[in-house]
Design goal:
The complex is a heterodimer.
Chain A lengths: L3 E4 L2 E4 L5 E7 L5 E7 L5 E8 L2 E5 L6 E7 L2 E6 L8 E8 L9 E2 L3 E5 L1
Parallel strand pairs in A: 2-11
Antiparallel strand pairs in A: 1-3, 3-8, 4-5, 4-9, 5-6, 7-8, 9-10, 9-11
Chain B lengths: L2 E3 L4 E5 L4 E3 L2 E3 L5 E8 L6 E7 L7 E2 L2 E6 L4 E6 L8 E9 L5 E2 L3 E6 L1
Parallel strand pairs in B: 2-12
Antiparallel strand pairs in B: 1-4, 3-9, 5-6, 5-10, 7-8, 8-9, 10-11, 10-12
Classes of the chains: A mainly beta, B mainly beta.
Chain lengths: ~110, ~110
C-alpha cells in the first residue's frame, strides 16, 4: 500500500481550464500539505491542513483552493489555469506540526498547461 | 526568515566511495528539525534522515549519516559506499516549531561506475 498517493501522475490541459489533483494518505497523520516544485527544482509550500483546518496559506493565488473532506484526503483545485502553473505538485503528510514530524511525500503530479 | 543553503549544485563521486553533501541553515530558534530528502529521476521525494536540534549524537540511517555542527549551523549529509542508485537530487530542509518546512535548492549527485 502506498502511504501517500496522489492522482493523476500527469495532467496536460489548456489555459483557462479548471482541474483537480487528489491526495490520500493511509498513515493516520493529522497534517497534510501541498508543495509546488518549479522547473528549477525549487520546492515551495502552498498549503497545510491540520485536522481539516487550513493553517498556512503562502501567498498562493486564490485560483488554487485546497479541499479536505476528511483528514486522510487533501485535494487541490485549480481554476483558470495559466501557463505559469506548469510545475510538479507534491502532496505530503506528517503526524503533526512539530519540528520533528517527518513529512512523507506522494509521487508528484506533473501539470503541463498549454 | 529561515534560509537553507546548499552550495553544491552538482557533485560527482566514484562508485563505492563516500561523499559529503553540504547544507547550512539560518535560524534564531533553538528548537528545529533538519531533514534530507532524495529525489531520483523518477521524481518522487524520499525521506532519508532526520536530526533534531537538541540531539547530541549525529543521526545515522544505514549508509546515510548526518554531520550536525550546531554552532556552525551546518547539517551535511554523508553517503558511504556510494552506489549507482544514489544518483539523484538531494534536498536539505529545516522546520522550526509550528512553522513550515523550507528546502534548499538541492544538489545533483552523480555516481560514476
Amino acid at each position: 500500500d502506498t502511504a501517500v498517493s496522489q492522482t493523476p501522475k500527469y495532467l496536460v490541459t489548456q489555459m483557462g481550464n479548471d482541474k483537480s489533483i487528489k491526495c490520500e494518505q493511509n498513515l493516520g497523520h493529522d497534517t497534510m500539505y501541498w508543495y509546488k516544485q518549479d522547473s528549477k527544482k525549487f520546492l515551495k509550500i502552498m498549503f497545510s491542513y491540520n485536522n481539516k483546518e487550513l493553517i498556512i496559506n503562502e501567498t498562493v493565488p486564490n485560483r488554487f483552493s485546497p479541499k479536505s473532506p476528511d483528514k486522510a484526503h487533501l485535494n487541490l483545485h485549480i481554476n483558470s489555469l495559466e501557463l505559469g502553473d506548469s510545475a510538479v505538485y507534491f502532496c505530503a503528510s506528517s503526524q503533526g506540526l512539530q519540528s520533528r514530524d517527518i513529512q512523507y511525500f506522494g509521487a508528484g503530479t506533473r501539470l503541463s498547461v498549454l | 526568515a529561515q534560509k537553507i543553503t546548499q552550495t553544491q549544485p552538482g557533485m560527482f563521486v566514484q562508485e563505492k566511495e563516500a561523499v559529503t553533501l553540504d547544507c547550512t541553515y539560518d535560524t534564531s530558534d533553538q528548537s528545529y528539525g533538519l531533514f534530507w530528502y532524495k529525489q531520483p529521476s523518477s521524481g518522487e521525494m524520499i525521506f532519508l534522515i532526520y536530526q533534531g536540534s537538541y540531539d547530541e549524537q549525529n543521526a545515522t540511517e544505514g549508509r546515510y549519516s548526518l554531520n550536525f555542527q550546531k554552532a556552525r549551523k551546518s547539517a551535511n549529509l554523508v553517503i558511504s559506499a556510494s552506489q549507482l542508485g544514489d544518483s539523484a537530487m538531494y534536498f536539505c530542509a529545516m522546520r522550526e516549531v509550528y512553522n513550515d518546512m523550507r528546502f534548499g535548492a538541492g544538489t545533483r549527485l552523480t555516481v560514476k561506475p
